[in-house]
Design a protein that fits this description.
Blueprint lengths: L3 E5 L3 E2 L6 H19 L3 E9 L3 H9 L4 H18 L6 E4 L3 H17 L2 E11 L4 E3 L1 H6 L12 E10 L5 H10 L4 E3 L1 H12 L5 E2 L1 E3 L7 E2 L2 E6 L1 H6 L1 H4 L14 E5 L3 H14 L7 E5 L2 E3 L2 E2 L10 H11 L1 H11 L7 E3 L1 H30 L12 H22 L3 H22 L1 H7 L1 H22 L4 H10 L34
Parallel strand pairs: 1-3, 1-13, 2-3, 3-4, 8-14, 13-14, 15-17
Antiparallel strand pairs: 5-6, 5-7, 7-9, 10-12, 11-12, 15-16
Helix pairs in contact: 2-3, 6-7, 7-10, 11-12, 12-13, 13-15, 13-17, 14-15, 14-17, 15-17, 16-17, 17-18
Length: 507
């Protein structure tokens, strides 16, 4: 493992409140950050809001607010939502903050001095909803409509400052093929990026005019503002470009959704090359959520907004929601469906029947047969050795999987081990062993309880509240990942149901 770990989310537009997409990316970044803290690394986790979009000006005007007032409201909504869902970001950047704006001007000024940014004129097809230009070929492929919202593309011509993206195509291809300094994952996204670079890169406009003063001015040209996307990308560097934080750069993981891959996998690393800055180690691009089997749409009424998210958290708990997002979300290249039936199925199977039930059984049996105290463990027991080796091997694999961003595989493996402990408890039947060999029953209950403890320690980054309860019940708060830290003689604490089984109401 590395000594430091720096993970980022995209910074989110402040033209509305958070929805499932925002919470998903941020939760996955939070889980990664928590794992690397668990592995004793120096972690920096950054999220925040992207505020200089033209649509912020329009939305504010509709509400009789200034752009900053509207941005303040929604930035607060993001920060509050992330706090509710146990997000442990180390900083929250807003692109309207002076600390960011000053750095952006410094970076652009440097690029102007090297000639990598130059003044010119641009004409092309513009997607107003996404605030980005689309190539002529792409515009034709899209039938001259936005691929995101279906609205017609606009033909625009304006004076801009350009970045010499074309200059960096050979170097980007070299880096992506070597994969040791800079990588795009999953594999399909990397291949997509390479193929698009091979089609040829054009120099890209990085400024806009006529923004009414809403934005970061180009150094020496107050009539031009830094394009919102370029402004936003610089946040990853600007917030750690201080004497105290410089050691965190480069970022280890930029976690993004697939719709913003081009900016992060091509334009951003090319600008860093121009600035002679190290590149992020991995740009990881996940897929989208669908809802009840359909693409999410407010018009269809299946959009998973903040109210719906909070309803799930209220009914099932934040930890259950985090578990579902982490294990059933679109972390790979396929979209994932969010449905109530699927959620309840995962909740009952993983959390109520397996994890919560194992705690109930262990605490109940130890309470009944050993006066609620963790029994002694016979280290010579063959059964005990098998469980010890099985769980210890998992403990050794998990950090490697997390480091390789095989997050869902790691979580599935942990819950399978919980299921294994349940089945072994049933097979060994300590309630029968007590009649013939109480010492064997004691060993069975100890090793299953210790297996549960170790699984719980490793599940902390996903379910921080419920795992805290389990460790407190076992008298094992603050314990680590070494086998045998559960102490015999420890008095178990009483507890209620960890994850009460959820029964669907019959129609």
């Amino acid at each position: 493992m590395n000594s430091k770990f720096y993970v980022t989310t995209p910074i989110y537009y402040v033209n509305d409140k958070p929805h499932i997409g925002h919470l998903y990316t941020t939760t996955m970044a939070d889980i990664l950050a928590r794992y690397h803290r668990l592995f004793k690394e120096d972690v920096f986790f950054l999220t925040g809001t992207d505020e200089h979009a033209a649509k912020v000006v329009e939305a504010a005007k509709e509400r009789g607010l200034t752009p900053l007032q509207w941005a303040d409201q929604n930035a607060a909504a993001f920060a509050e939502t992330f706090q509710k869902f146990f997000i442990t970001n180390n900083d929250f950047v807003r692109t309207t903050q002076e600390r960011h704006q000053k750095k952006v001007q410094d970076y652009v000024a440097k690029l102007m001095q090297t000639g990598d940014v130059f003044s010119g004129e641009y004409e092309g097809w513009y997607d107003a909803g996404q605030e980005e230009y689309v190539t002529d070929n792409k515009a034709k492929d899209y039938d001259y409509k936005s691929p995101i919202n279906g609205k017609p593309l606009l033909r625009k011509k304006e004076r801009n400052y350009f970045f010499r993206l074309s200059k960096y195509a050979p170097k980007l291809l070299e880096l992506l093929e070597k994969r040791n300094e800079f990588d795009v994952q999953p594999e399909a996204r990397r291949n997509e990026t390479i193929n698009r670079i091979k089609e040829g890169l054009n120099d890209v406009p990085i400024s806009r005019s006529g923004t009414g003063g809403w934005g970061i001015p180009i150094p020496g040209d107050p009539d031009q503002n830094v394009y919102v996307w370029i402004d936003a990308l610089f946040n990853y560097l600007s917030i750690v470009d201080t004497p105290q934080r410089r050691h965190y750069w480069p970022a280890d993981v930029h976690l993004i959704a697939k719709d913003i891959l081009w900016f992060h996998a091509v334009i951003w690393p090319a600008m860093l090359l121009a600035l002679e800055e190290p590149l992020p180690r991995v740009v990881y691009s996940h897929s989208f959520w669908t809802s009840e089997g359909q693409k999410m749409s407010k018009s269809l009424g299946n959009f998973i907004d903040l109210d719906k998210i909070e309803d799930y958290a209220w009914r099932f708990g934040v930890d259950a929601l985090r578990w579902f997002l982490a294990t059933n979300g679109p972390f790979e290249t396929m979209d994932s469906d969010f449905s109530e039936n699927k959620f309840i199925g995962v909740y009952n199977s993983d959390l109520a029947n397996d994890y919560g039930n194992l705690l109930n059984r262990i605490s109940g049996l130890i309470g009944k047969y050993f006066n609620g105290e963790v029994p002694e463990y016979d280290t010579a027991s063959p059964f005990g050795q098998v469980i010890k080796e099985t769980i210890s091997e998992m403990v050794e694999r998990i950090p490697k999987k997390i480091n390789n961003l095989e997050l869902q595989e790691a979580l599935v493996e942990m819950m399978r081990k919980v299921g294994l402990l349940n089945s072994q408890l049933e097979f060994q039947a300590p309630w029968q062993q007590m009649k013939q060999d109480p010492k064997l029953a004691a060993t069975t209950l100890y090793v299953v309880a210790e297996g549960l403890r170790l699984c719980t320690v490793l599940l902390q980054p996903v379910m921080p509240e419920k795992t805290k309860i389990v460790l407190e019940v076992l008298g094992a708060a603050g314990t680590g990942t070494k086998w045998g830290e559960l102490k015999s003689g420890t008095k178990l604490k009483t507890h209620g149901p960890l994850f009460p089984r959820f029964e669907m109401e019959k129609q």
